[in-house]
Amino acid sequence: MNAGEFVTVLGSSGCGKTTVLKMVNGLLSPTAGEILINSRPLVDQNLVQLRRHMGYVVQQIGLFPHMTVAKNIGLVPQMLNWNQDKIVSRVTELLKLVQLEPAKYADRYPSQLSGGQQQRIGVARALAVNPPYVLFDEPFGALDALTRIELQKEIKHIHDTLKDKTFMFVTHDINEALFLGQRVMIMKDGQIEQFATPEEIVQHPATQFVSDLLATTRQNQGLWGRSE
Ligand SMILES: Nc1ncnc2c1ncn2[C@@H]1O[C@H](COP(=O)(O)OP(=O)(O)OP(=O)(O)O)[C@@H](O)[C@H]1O
Ligand SMILES: [Mg+2]
């Protein structure tokens, strides 16, 4: 991956996508090969420091239910002993970035939010200390199609706005992977089938598996424009 790039990781359930993210974050060690961050082996780096530089939006949202939205977003700044004014202004800024009105949402609890709103808070929290790397593990998996498309547009906009951030975004949805990724890494059974730009993948699928996946896109199934 290159600095500032938006890479999506696509593959079926159980192919090892979450495992890849956990290895990049240092939560798991690879049994073979090595992970390089900024050209340096991960094993040589201080994991606490590294994770401060890496936001992580986990697969099951993972907001703390007993904390307000503001406290959830401000968690890492609080741990790093930022002063309170700075935390409040950062939380306000992030809520605006994810399109939630601060006055309305800051003091709510996660249970008082819809699934899509909770996911926005998860994204805001991952961005709190302005990390250069952000890992996303199927953040929109549980959302309805319209909310999902809206959040896809937003995350793309956020990547464009916050220049120089490297995003690694896991999904099992090929439409999402091709829409968001500047490059897409397609996995099957723990192996990389193809890692290329969306255009390259669509024009030159590297394997039968990639071709089969492409055949499931909405365009190719002929499901668009069907009159019923
Ligand atoms: N801690 C573990 N110990 C042993 N095997 C594991 C462990 N965690 C995951 N696995 C196995 O490793 C494989 C890959 O798991 P992983 O969670 O990376 O899949 P995934 O691609 O993220 O799937 P999903 O889309 O369902 O989240 C699966 O077969 C899973 O059962
Ligand atoms: Mg997973």
Question: Can you tell me about this structure?
Answer:
The longest helix has 17 residues, at 145-161. With 228 residues, this protein is of the alpha/beta class. The chain has helices spanning 17-24, 47-52, 69-73, 75-79, 84-97, 102-105, 115-126, 145-161, 174-180, 198-203, 208-215, and strands at residues 6-10, 36-37, 40-41, 54-57, 133-137, 166-171, 183-188, 191-196. The protein starts with 5 loop residues before the first strand and ends in a 13-residue tail after the last helix. The strands form 2 sheets. Strands 4-5-6-1-7-8 form a 6-stranded mixed beta sheet, with helices on both faces. It has 2 domains: 1-53 and 133-228, Rossmann fold (3-Layer(aba) Sandwich), CATH 3.40.50; 63-130, no CATH class. It binds adenosine-5'-triphosphate and magnesium ion (MG). Adenosine-5'-triphosphate (ATP) binds next to helix 1.
Quick overview of this protein structure:
It contains 11 helices and 8 strands.
What are the main properties of this structure?
6-stranded mixed beta sheet; nucleotide-binding; 11 helices; two-stranded antiparallel ribbon; binds magnesium ion; binds adenosine-5'-triphosphate; alpha/beta; AAA+_ATPase; 228 residues; 40% helix
